[in-house]
Automatic annotation (TrEMBL):
Domain Solute-binding protein family 3/N-terminal residue range list: 39-261
Nucleotide-binding recorded as keyword: no
GO CC term, one of those recorded: membrane
Record domain Ionotropic glutamate receptor C-terminal: where: 39-260
Name of protein: Glutamine-binding periplasmic protein
Transmembrane segments: none
Record's signal peptide: none
Pfam families associated with the record: SBP_bac_3
Species whose genome carries this gene: Advenella mimigardefordensis (strain DSM 17166 / LMG 22922 / DPN7)
InterPro entries: Iontro_rcpt_C, Solute-binding_3/MltF_N
UniProt entry keywords in alphabetical sequence: Signal
GO molecular function: ligand-gated monoatomic ion channel activity
Keyword Phosphoprotein: no
Length: 270
């Protein structure tokens, strides 16, 4: 038997098999590739207190703690890719990231182009004005007023549907609370944003500068983890999320960031 010939033939077979695997792997949908990977690429917002923000050189917040819990339960690691909120969806639909967590509201429009996990947070929309503002008490007072919103958010959609309309100013992010400072300085009449962020800022850095004037309970306003369409990760993420809720880990980080105990039953109202 010619062992050298056999060895060469085996090497060629292995090389062909490896090439075939690489071609097949490249053709897989991003979610299926991600499910087989050791490290996931996760998009997040650059600054959305108290869900994700940079502190002492690292990203922290409720979403970051939840991401740690879920990926640990899944047995995978991740690489974080911070970006402006409005860029997250293009990266998801193009398959450039495996998932995104950034206070992302589930909407019918978004569900047409991406997958969502089960809800992990319920949030309403609040109206913020300067602390000494007595002219704006409710959303109905915003007609013709200068109102700031974060681009690409459910709050922005809500303000744009108001009739009579307001004059809208868009912000890419909420870094360092700049839009709130614009309200406090009188360069904007109001700011409309998700309640969790609004209350966190008004009770911390913005205390004495801005106040919450009104809150609207928008229907089905839930946050979820987003993934590319038909991702193989969706079921695994949901299983991990259920686990961290059942074990009490979710309640622990919820209390850490919001100072109250969560009501998991609220997540089932969708």
């Amino acid at each position: 038997m010619d062992f050298r010939h056999r060895s060469r033939r085996n090497s060629i077979s292995l090389a062909l098999a490896a090439c075939a695997f690489l071609i097949l792997y490249a053709a897989m949908p991003p979610g299926i590739r991600a499910a087989q990977a050791e490290t996931l690429t996760v998009a997040t917002d650059t600054a959305y207190l108290p869900f994700e923000f940079r502190e002492n050189g690292k990203y922290v917040g409720f979403d970051m703690d939840l991401l740690d819990l879920i990926t640990h339960e899944m047995g995978v690691s991740y690489t974080l890719l911070p970006m402006d909120f409005s860029n997250i969806f293009a990266n998801l639909t193009a398959g450039k990231v495996d998932m995104a967590i950034a206070g992302i509201t589930i909407t019918q429009d978004r569900e047409r182009s991406m997958d969502f996990s089960d809800p992990y947070f319920r949030s309403d929309i609040s109206l913020v004005v300067a602390n000494d503002n007595t002219a704006i008490d409710r959303f109905a007072d915003l007609a013709g007023k200068r109102v700031g919103v974060k681009r690409g958010t459910d709050a922005a959609d809500y303000v744009n549907r108001l009739q009579p309309p307001a004059t809208v100013t868009y912000f890419q992010n909420m870094d360092a609370g700049f839009p709130y400072l614009e309200v406090a300085a009188g360069r904007l009449d109001a700011l409309v944003h998700d309640t969790a962020n609004v209350r966190y800022y008004s009770q911390n850095k913005g205390q004495g500068l801005v106040k919450v004037a009104d809150t609207v309970a928008t229907p089905n306003h839930f946050y979820a983890i987003a993934m590319p369409r038909n991702s193989a990760l969706t079921q695994r993420v949901n299983a991990a999320l259920r686990k961290v809720i059942e074990t009490g880990s979710y309640a622990s980080i919820y209390h850490k960031w919001f100072g109250v105990a969560p009501d998991p039953a609220q997540l089932m109202l969708r």
